[in-house]
């Protein structure tokens, strides 16, 4: 193996072994200089009583560290006492317990991977999850080794007035030569992936929160100089999250201080380091003129997510990285619940379901399909996936549905009581719920071990003579890599039955083969446990229309043969608002897919009147709240449609989607215009104002889709007169995705206003990268040369390259393969500087098998070329090799 190259071997969950040693205490001194950093660490090591094997050596993890000195029990260790390997420091014949002191030198200034200690602009910061701590010092870099940390940071006082660490402050002072120091003590044992430090010159917003037991907590948000006017929303969000976790889960904060630092260079959204969360600026900074309503929601949700990790992730952590969903699925579920409580629950739910149905279903049916608790990986960073996170959250949601809110809370209480301070497994989590509720959840655990999306076929029969209605549910799950046969899942299947007037019928039902007692209500959660199961409803006086899988009660694909008229009826009447949206999506997707077929056959594409009538009724329905009406009117995008077909004919899908959008817009032009005029112009930050903006801007987008000159004028006027970024950006998006004559003018005006606002410029890049125009690739190539673009900055890479490859199907899948070539070349470059991000970018090729033969060949060619590249990182290697093999 070449120096600096890290192994591409596969790690298996089955091979878990407890660590041979534990580290009870860590004392660190971090000296920061302009050219390098020096890390002095003192580790109190002892044999792990749970480890039963013989111990001849101790292997500590360490990558790209320059060892300056090493001592055991304060005695310099002779060369014979240790061995330095490429990614390890091996101590020979270690004693039962001892202290190990090392001094290493590292180069944060040269760290472009943004893992370990690195510089973002003029600030030092860290990112240790999953395995970044080994790039700071020699350590047992695994989550089941938990230690109490004392950390001293030293740096130049002028350049780095703020020196921040985990836990509580434990002193600070001056040093010679203009330097200073600060010490931090974190009393709560933690795995090293939660370690963090920051040094820099920031603006600071301060506040405080008193916990339910009366403990005061200092709240601090550190941001770039000049950004203080973009922090208020983040601070409000922290306080809401703290209060919500007390009210809903009885969990309070456990340190004297809670700090958030926003940095511009960050590989993902944010990181829950104990007491010192480090955030991407995107999820902290927001004010009316820089952030849209969606950005505001994103800030609130991510702040809450990281805060909730304090209990689900930090106090109770993962035994090993295969258990990642233990903390991530659960914490996503918690942040989703929180957001539902803060705003419109239906809108939040359907937004979350869209992610599952597009990104997660796509992952589940491709080469990277894995259970929410993976069995193996090459590079752990590749498993921070929508499966582990979002499907993981759906699994927790099903548990919540099955146990009820009270039962779930009992289970959570048991989980914290039993496992506080431990590193545990997903099985431990489910067991706590089973024990607290005296339920057998063995079958439920299959959701953790089986990959793939179950399909449920539903058929029904109405027996008028006996007033009996029978639903037959059949489940099966397609094979995924390494898993041919699947066992039936335990699926909570929520339904209602509508009568002719559209009301829910009272239900009195029994499962034919389970010994459940009859259950009554107007909505039922059917416990589907077998491959095929019948549910019988008595005293049903008329043939009902079933409303199925309400609220998306399980992450499955549903098949039931609705007619267009039945879907329109559900859209107009279902008491489940979620299912109204679902009916709209099904109806419009169906006509889009039919139009795609017509396009393929060279026939004229058609839009049936029933669709425009149903959408006109939505526009007219003032009973529904505006945000929901906006969602009902948003037509499915290509990402959504792609998951509904076996083979993707991208040209036909694009043509059909554009045709249907334009026809809807032309047909409903007047009512859309009236609605737009009625609700536009709201300026408040409250939910009602945001709902009005959502509806107005959905109307505006459709008006522009009609290609009417007046619509272009409306958008242009809104771009200039807008009082919020939501309105301004919606107008820009509408124009940038159109053939409006003033399109370029709009883009130029926007950059003129915002060239100094990095996050707003990201939007400007994305809106062009995702434009469904033949010129998209050329535009992206031009934008790379723009002074605001920077290939070293992950936000910019996401805004331009990721947006183009992942969210511009027409552009990326150009028939000539130029889109593929362009992205593959960027992957190769990023592979050198930031492998983690390169792996995300290359996943655009994962679904190559789903496209037509020509495109398959073009994509495969790029993948194979990447595989032969020298110095391929494990990150990119894993994704590409799995894609090619599939
Ligand atoms: N736990 C981090 C993600 C770390 C990703 C490492 N590649 C953020 C979060 O989920 O809260
Ligand atoms: Zn998380």
From TrEMBL:
Residues 234-447 form the Peptidase M1 membrane alanine aminopeptidase domain. It comes from the Bacteria. CDD domains: M1_APN. Signal peptide: none annotated. Its EC number is 3.4.11.2. It catalyses: Release of an N-terminal amino acid, Xaa-|-Yaa- from a peptide, amide or arylamide. Xaa is preferably Ala, but may be most amino acids including Pro (slow action). When a terminal hydrophobic residue is followed by a prolyl residue, the two may be released as an intact Xaa-Pro dipeptide. It is an enzyme of class 3 (hydrolase). Residues 452-561 form the Peptidase M1 alanyl aminopeptidase Ig-like fold domain. Aminopeptidase N is involved in the degradation of intracellular peptides generated by protein breakdown during normal growth as well as in response to nutrient starvation. NCBIfam families: pepN_proteo. Belongs to the peptidase M1 family. This is Aminopeptidase N. The lineage of its organism: Bacteria, Pseudomonadati, Pseudomonadota, Gammaproteobacteria, Pseudomonadales.
């Amino acid at each position: 193996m070449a120096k600096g190259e890290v192994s591409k071997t596969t790690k298996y969950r089955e091979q878990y072994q407890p660590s041979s040693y534990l580290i009870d205490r860590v004392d660190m001194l971090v000296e920061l200089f302009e050219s390098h950093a020096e890390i002095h660490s003192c580790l109190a090591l002892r044999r792990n009583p749970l480890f039963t094997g013989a111990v001849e050596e101790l292997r500590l993890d360490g990558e790209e560290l320059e060892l300056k000195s090493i001592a055991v029990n304060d005695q310099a260790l002779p060369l014979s006492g240790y061995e330095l390997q490429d990614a390890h420091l091996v101590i020979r014949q270690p004693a039962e317990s001892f202290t190990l002191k090392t001094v290493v030198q590292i180069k944060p200034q040269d760290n472009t991977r943004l893992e370990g200690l690195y510089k973002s602009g003029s600030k030092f910061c860290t990112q240790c999850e999953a395995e970044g701590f080994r790039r700071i010092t020699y350590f047992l870099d695994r989550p089941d080794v938990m230690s109490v940390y004392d950390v001293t940071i030293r740096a130049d006082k002028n350049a780095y007035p703020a020196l921040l660490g985990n836990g509580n402050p434990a002193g600070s002072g001056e040093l010679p030569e203009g330097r200073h120091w600060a010490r931090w003590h974190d009393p709560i044992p933690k795995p090293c992936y939660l370690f963090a430090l920051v040094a820099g010159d920031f603006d600071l917003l301060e506040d405080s929160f008193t916990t339910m037991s009366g403990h005061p907590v200092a709240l601090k948000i550190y941001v770039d100089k000049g950004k203080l006017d973009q922090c208020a929303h983040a601070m409000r969000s922290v306080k809401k999250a703290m209060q919500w976790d007390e009210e809903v889960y009885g969990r309070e904060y456990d340190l004297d201080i809670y700090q958030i630092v926003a940095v511009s260079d960050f590989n993902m959204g944010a990181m829950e380091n104990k007491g010192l969360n480090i955030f991407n600026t995107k999820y902290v900074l927001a004010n009316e003129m820089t952030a849209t309503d969606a950005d505001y929601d994103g800030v609130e949700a991510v702040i809450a997510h990281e805060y909730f990790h304090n209990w689900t992730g930090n106090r109770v952590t993962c035994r090993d990285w295969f258990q990642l969903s233990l903390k991530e699925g659960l914490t996503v579920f918690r942040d989703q619940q929180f957001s539902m409580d803060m705003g419109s629950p239906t809108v939040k739910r359907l937004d979350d379901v869209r992610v599952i149905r597009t990104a997660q279903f796509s992952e589940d049916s491709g080469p990277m399909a894995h259970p929410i608790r993976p069995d193996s990986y090459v590079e752990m960073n590749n498993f921070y996936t929508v499966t582990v996170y979002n499907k993981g959250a759906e699994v927790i949601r099903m548990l919540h549905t099955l146990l009820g809110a009270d039962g779930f809370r009992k289970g959570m209480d048991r989980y914290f009581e039993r496992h506080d301070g431990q590193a545990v497994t997903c099985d431990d989590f489910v067991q706590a719920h089973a024990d607290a509720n005296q339920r057998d959840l063995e079958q439920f655990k299959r959701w953790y071990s089986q990959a793939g999306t179950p399909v449920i076929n539903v058929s029904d029969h109405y027996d008028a003579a006996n007033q009996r209605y029978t639903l037959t549910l059949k489940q099966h799950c397609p094979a995924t890599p390494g898993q041919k046969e699947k066992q039936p899942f335990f699926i909570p299947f929520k339904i209602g039955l509508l009568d002719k007037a559209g009301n829910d019928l009272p239900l009195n039902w029994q499962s034919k083969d389970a010994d459940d007692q009859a259950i009554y209500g107007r909505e039922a959660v059917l416990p589907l446990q077998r491959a095929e199961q019948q549910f019988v409803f008595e005293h049903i006086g008329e043939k009902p229309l079933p409303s199925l899988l309400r609220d998306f009660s399980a992450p499955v694909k549903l098949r039931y043969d609705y007619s267009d008229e039945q879907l329109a009826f559900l859209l107009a009447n279902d008491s489940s608002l979620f299912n109204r949206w679902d009916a709209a999506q099904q109806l419009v997707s169906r006509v889009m897919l039919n139009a795609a077929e017509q396009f393929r056959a060279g026939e004229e594409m058609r839009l049936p009147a029933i669709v425009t009538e149903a959408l006109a009724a939505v526009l007219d329905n003032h009973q529904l709240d505006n945000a929901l009406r906006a969602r009902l009117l948003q037509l499915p995008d290509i990402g959504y449609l792609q998951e509904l077909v076996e083979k993707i004919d991208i040209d036909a899908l694009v043509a059909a989607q554009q045709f249907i959008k334009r026809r809807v817009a032309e047909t409903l032009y007047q009512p859309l215009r009236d609605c737009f005029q009625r609700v536009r112009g709201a300026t408040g930050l409250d939910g009602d104002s945001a709902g009005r903006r959502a509806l107005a801007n959905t109307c505006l987008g459709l008006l522009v889709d009609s290609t009417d000159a007046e619509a272009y004028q409306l958008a242009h006027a809104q771009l200039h007169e807008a009082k919020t970024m939501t309105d301004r950006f919606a107008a820009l998006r509408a124009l940038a995705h159109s053939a409006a004559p003033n399109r370029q003018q709009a883009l130029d005006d926007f950059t003129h206003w915002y060239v100094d606002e990095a996050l707003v410029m990201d939007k400007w890049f994305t809106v062009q990268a995702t434009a469904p125009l033949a010129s998209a690739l050329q535009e992206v190539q031009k934008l790379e040369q723009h002074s605001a673009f920077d290939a070293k900055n992950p936000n910019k890479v996401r805004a331009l390259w990721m947006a183009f490859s992942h969210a511009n199907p027409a552009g990326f899948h150009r028939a000539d393969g130029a889109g593929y070539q362009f992205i593959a070349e960027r992957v190769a470059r990023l592979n050198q500087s930031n492998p983690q991000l390169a792996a995300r970018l290359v996943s655009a090729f994962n679904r190559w098998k789903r496209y037509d033969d020509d495109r398959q060949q073009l994509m495969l060619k790029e993948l194979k070329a990447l595989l032969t590249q020298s110095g391929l990182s494990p990150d990119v290697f894993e994704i590409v090799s799995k894609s090619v093999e599939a």
